Every structure is written in C-alpha cells, then in structure tokens.
Amino acid sequence: MIKLKKLLSEVIFPSSFTCDVCGIESFESNICPTCMKTITLNNLNVCPVCGRKTVVEEICLECKAKAPLFKKAVSPLVYEGGAAVLIAKFKNDCAYLKDYFADLIFEKLKNFPETDCIVCVPMTQKSERKRGYNQSELLAICLSERMNKPFISDALTKIKDTSEQKSLSRKEREKNLQGCFKVENRDALKGKNILLTDDVLTTGATADAICKKLLSAGAANVYLATVASVQYKPEKG
Ligand SMILES: [Zn+2]
Ligand SMILES: [Zn+2]
C-alpha cells in the first residue's frame, strides 16, 4: 500500500512541471495534491476473480453468475476521477504514461500467479495507425521488461473494428466482438499461462472474447492485468 502510494506520487518526468491529470503547475510530483485525492487505489476489498473493487471481499455476483474466461484479474486503480482522466490521456497521445502504469501493475503482480508470457489486446491496423500506438501493447512491452517474460507481439490480431462499446450492454458488447480477433501464432501460446494486458476492465467482454481465442488455441490459462477497473456495483432488485 505504502509502496503503491509512493509510486503514485513519484516524480517520473521531472522535466514536465505540470500535473498529469489537470495540467496545472506541480513541482513536487507528477500529480498535484488535489488530483491525487481523486485517484482511488484498488487496495481494499476486491473480487478475488475479476479484481474489481467490491464492498466485501468475496466473489462478485457477476463472476458468480458467469465466471469469466480469465482465471484471475488484477488492476491497481479504480476507474474513476483522476485515474479515468489519466487513462483517457494515455489513449490520446500521452504514451509516456506507460511506465508509470506498468510500475503500478508490476507492484500488484507480486501477489499474483506466475505467468509464462504476455499478450496484449490488439487494435485493428487502421485504429493503431490513427492513434500512432496501441496502449495495451505499450503496457505489455513495459511489463515484459519488468517481469523478464517474453511479450508475444504476434499472438493475435484484431481484424474487425468494433463500434463504440461504451453505451452497450454486456450482451450487446459480446455480439459486437464476435469475429473481431484472430490468433496468429498458435505455437507461442500452446500450454502457456498468459498474462493479457489492457487499459481498463469494464464488463470484461473484450477480455473474454480474447480469452476464448487464446484458450481455443491451446493456452493453459489466461490472467488479466489492467491499469484500472470499474467498481463492481450490484444491480438493485
Ligand atoms: Zn492536478
Ligand atoms: Zn468479480
């Protein structure tokens, strides 16, 4: 907890004297004290399967109702406030945040099952060209260095762009993701315990669609690491 807090406030880019969240001058750390208060570490109760913040430490109802295809997921931040702003920036030209996020994830992985290799959530060529990079791939590369495990860059590709997922329900997301991913390197995946990287875990529909592909290609298990995850909120009634 203390280590994570320290990581969170460390000056990673001393040359940029502005807060990474709000952009105001901040000489002591890369996140100003006001924005720091809006960032929630995912350090208290979590679902032991999906890793999302819960009220009590137990498997959330969603995982109980339908176990995800990944074995276990981890995310150092709760997707809200300053963390959501940082992730939006990470996906819109602030690629440098990759090291910062990888440090946070790596710290969490110390209490996580061992994996053999890393795979990222792919983007279509068209989307990647538009953005200039794939943020999940940047995370995978940084984690590969920290974990000293290979990143399988050609594991799978995204062959069809998904329309905006945000406003869709879980069912609609699943449908939207059908036929989107294609395994390209079966040999590298066979029998492996894979760590899959992505920026945010929301419904888990994307992770599940990829897990399905990796498992059917012969992967032993898939684990998921994301920068942040949405808090689990049981549906009322
Ligand atoms: Zn700030
Ligand atoms: Zn869960």
Describe this protein with a few key phrases:
single chain; 237 residues; alpha/beta; Rossmann fold; five-stranded parallel sheet; two-stranded antiparallel sheet; 35% helix; globular; binds zinc ion
Radius of gyration: 17 Å
How do the SSEs run, as a string of H and E? HHHEEHHEHHEHEHEHE
Mean pLDDT: 91
Q: Per CATH, what is the topology? A: Rossmann fold
The beta-strand count equals: 7
**What ligands can be seen in this structure?**
zinc ion
**What is the overall silhouette?**
globular
Measure the end-to-end span: 35 Å
**Number of distinct helices:** 10
Question: Regarding quaternary structure, how should these chains be classified?
Answer: single chain
Query: Could you say which structural class the secondary elements and strand pairing correspond to?
Result: alpha/beta
- The level of helicity is 25-40%
Concise summary:
This protein has 237 residues and is of the alpha/beta class. The protein has helices spanning 2-9, 33-36, 61-65, 81-90, 97-109, 125-131, 135-147, 170-177, 186-189, 205-216, and strands at 72-74, 77-78, 117-120, 156-158, 181-183, 193-201, 221-229. Bound molecules: zinc ion (ZN) (2 copies).
What does this structure look like?
By secondary structure, this protein is α/β, with parallel strands linked by helices. The protein has one domain: Rossmann fold, CATH 3.40.50. It is built from ten helices and seven strands. It has helices at residues 2-9, 33-36, 61-65, 81-90, 97-109, 125-131, 135-147, 170-177, 186-189, 205-216; strands at residues 72-74, 77-78, 117-120, 156-158, 181-183, 193-201, 221-229. The strands form two sheets. Strands 1, 2, 3, 6 and 7 form a five-stranded parallel β-sheet that branches. Strands 4-5 form a two-stranded antiparallel ribbon. Strand 6 (193-201), helix 10 and strand 7 (221-229) form a beta-alpha-beta unit. Helix 1 (2-9) runs antiparallel to helix 5 (97-109) and helix 5 (97-109) crosses helix 7. Mean pLDDT is 91; it is low at 11-15. One zinc ion is lined by residues 19, 21-22, 24, 32, 34-35. One zinc ion binds at residues 47, 49-50, 52, 59-60, 62-63.
